[in-house]
Design a protein that fits this description.
Blueprint lengths: L4 E4 L5 H14 L1 H9 L8 H5 L3 E6 L2 E10 L5 E8 L8 H15 L4 E6 L4 H6 L3 E8 L2 E9 L4
Parallel strand pairs: 4-5
Antiparallel strand pairs: 1-2, 2-3, 3-4, 5-7, 6-7
């Protein structure tokens, strides 16, 4: 799969992208029960779009995934979410989105990109240049805290 375009999402795409998020999230068997019990967790806030911090990946003119970036108070950045249509998993879309978010974080002055990821996604994030920094307990279970040094790009 070749990602033909990574671009900034427009606010009018929000609901469409949330449906990609829903399909991707529910396709992970480890997350399905939690998300069925808490459907409110599947959301991407409108303010992310207004800030220009949502990027989409297109293949042959079709949006197949997106990622969101938030700036932290310490000047670094966080990959808030990354979702790819399940039919496009393991084809480089997620990696292209992670790279686009990292590049945007650098332009915004971040030195480190963090992500709080599900344990089943550790392999993906490791391959995308992140390293495990710890485990965080949340109200919904344990998540991994990973980070990527952006100063060695």
């Amino acid at each position: 799969m070749i990602v033909h375009c990574i671009r900034t999402a427009s606010p009018h795409e929000r609901l469409f992208l949330i449906e990609i998020q829903r399909r991707a999230a529910l396709a992970n068997t480890g997350d399905r029960d939690l998300l069925m019990a808490h459907p409110e967790l599947i959301d991407t806030p409108a303010e992310f779009f207004a800030a220009g911090n949502v990027v989409v990946a297109e293949c042959d003119g079709v949006v197949v995934g997106f990622a969101t970036l938030i700036l932290r108070e310490d000047g670094d950045a966080e990959l808030e979410g990354l979702f790819v249509e399940p039919s496009h998993w393991r084809q480089g879309v997620g990696r292209a989105l992670a790279e686009a978010v990292a590049a945007r974080a650098v332009t915004l002055g971040a030195k480190t990109l963090y992500v709080m990821g599900n344990p089943h996604a550790e392999g993906f994030y490791t391959r995308a240049g992140f390293r495990l920094d710890g485990v965080i307990e949340t109200q919904f279970g344990n998540n991994l805290l990973l980070e990527r040094d952006l100063t060695t790009r």
